[in-house]
Amino acid sequence: MTQISPARPIMSTIRPRLLAAMLAVTSIAAIGLNAPASAQRGDAPYTVAETGQGFARLVDAVTAIGAGRGTIIIAPGTHRDCAVQSEGEIVYRAAVPGQVIFDGGICEGKATLVLRGRGARVDGLIFQNMNVPDGNGSGIRLEKGNLAVTQSWFRNSEQGILAGEDTAATITVDKSTFTRLGRCDRGLACAHSLYIGNFASLEVTRSRFEAGNGGHYVKSRTPRVKIADCSFDDTAGKTTNYMIDLPAGSVGSIANNVFVQGKDKENYSAFIAVAAETRDNSSAGLRVEGNDARIGPGVDRESWFVANWSRDPIAIIANKIGPNIGKYHER
User: Fold this and answer.
1) CA 195, CA 64: separation in Å to the nearest integer?
2) Cβ count within 10 A of residue 278
3) How far apart are CA 298 and CA 188, in angstroms?
4) CA–CA distance, 104 with 46 (Å, rounded to integer)
5) Among 202, 251, 295, 300, which has the minimal tally of Cβ within 10 Å of its Cβ?
6) Could you report the per-residue pLDDT of 9-39, keeping only the tens digit for each?
7) In sequence order, what are the beta bridge partners of 107?
């Protein structure tokens, strides 16, 4: 095995425009560390913007919007609350991004936000300490409808976002951070930082994944993906697996991301895995382009950048790949 060259600190290797995006995400997350310990004074931490009506419980604000459209403005503080959205289109927006924390509130034994309406947007929220008996405690559990997440932070939980199946709906995640998520213990199926089932598409941009506690960082069964301008820092990960897993295959692009594989891996065979479980979706023409991948400092092992079980041709273009990483492997 070729001796690994000493690795430079991860931040020194990141392209300027990606570094700027990562710093923006980090600054939003850092604000939350100084958030107040409780909601602002008064009985109405949740306000429906369109009517000005305030509510003491998140579920009551959701109910007030009902089958319509509305925006819930959430006061700064730590909220041990949750809600189920069964209809309508709702925006959940922090009054001050990074200063609204949902801490451990679980509805239906699933998540803080259980979503099965027409659509939802989550803007500027922090979700933490989500744990449930089946090992899938999440900040967001999406069962139906479109979802857009921006400037949010998921941390110290079993999963960040877990989505089931809605082949007509799309999911986008932008400028968000996923920290100390995932698990593969207790004899239960693994949980992941971001796990999306059979939705129409997944787009993840300008986001950071770090210090996973097991499972994959991104696992998606969608037939189309876009994962771009993100960072995957696995140096503090514990018993983690792939950085990106497309278990049923997918088309689209994985572009301009930074990957650093850490030491404590349950599976270090590949950074990106395509169709490792089934070939339900075509992967023909999937583009893996302009990424930067390396193995972390002090780790003496070999890995593959892309492992492909799909038998479809994949375009792997202009990636910067570090020592002891093979470019491509067909399984």
Assistant:
1) 30
2) 12
3) 32
4) 18
5) 300
6) 343 344 444 444 444 444 444 444 343 333 3
7) 111
